[in-house]
Specification:
Helix content is about 45%, strand content about 20%. By secondary structure, it is of the alpha/beta class. The protein has 2 domains: about 150 residues, 3-Layer(aba) Sandwich (D-Maltodextrin-Binding Protein, domain 2), CATH 3.40.190; about 100 residues, D-Maltodextrin-Binding Protein, domain 2 (3-Layer(aba) Sandwich). The strands form 2 sheets. Strands 1, 2, 3, 4, 7, 8, 9 and 10 form an 8-stranded mixed sheet that branches. It has a two-stranded parallel sheet with strand order 5-6. Helix 7 links the parallel strand 5 and strand 6. The protein starts with a helix and ends with a strand. About 5% of the residues have low confidence.
Amino acid sequence: MSKKIFVLVAILLVISAWTYTKLNAEPESIILSTTTSTQDSGLLDFILPEFTEETGIEVKVVAVGTGKALQMGRDGEADVLLVHAKSSEIEFVEEGHGAERFDVMYNDFILVGPEALGYDNIGDTLKGIMDNELVFVSRGDDSGTHKKELSIWEANGITPEGDWYKSAGKGMGDVLQMANEFEGYTLTDRATYLSMKDSLDLEIVYEADALLLNEYGVIAVDPNKNETINNDGANEFIEWILSAETQEMIGTFGKDLYGQPLFFPNAK
């Protein structure tokens, strides 16, 4: 075999091996640990295919309560977090588990139940539920919604306890279904409620209170946690979700079906 032919064969073998590796390699991916509301509302199904199409990065979603999502970040079991308990997120960053928290979007929490109770504020409404031993279904899972619920009881000097107060330990969709079955009340993010409203016999009984603001943030997990963390992919996701184009997508989600957006973008 001449030297030229040998070199040509070697080059073809290298190209063939590279092509085989590329075709059979696992696609790049990131693990997104997030709250159940982003999944149950349908938002992730709406926006994530666009991210994968633009970047080639597959997003593996783990939808849990915010407390669990933050713990996954502490344990190095996720690349990036999209959660909604701002004070806990700031603490997460201050403890060194993530570099920076960025605002992404917001909506609000609402109190839903089988019928309005006629009170003028959230404190009196919750007290009325307790005094009349009406069923209240709590997330009970250390999620952002659960943290908010507990803070509202506390802010109004109420300690919920008794058979009427049921701690579910489940995601928002399951809790809404439980409240529906018990003909009870629960605190929910507006997005998940609106996405399930047609299958529920629950109405909004209290809303539009400063205490009920629901802010979402995104954080890349510290890559020093372990060698498997895809920090480049996480940062690419953050840049994408904060971009003007994605923020516009978020702001349109839900308008066609519900006559109003389910989330309001607020990236700076």
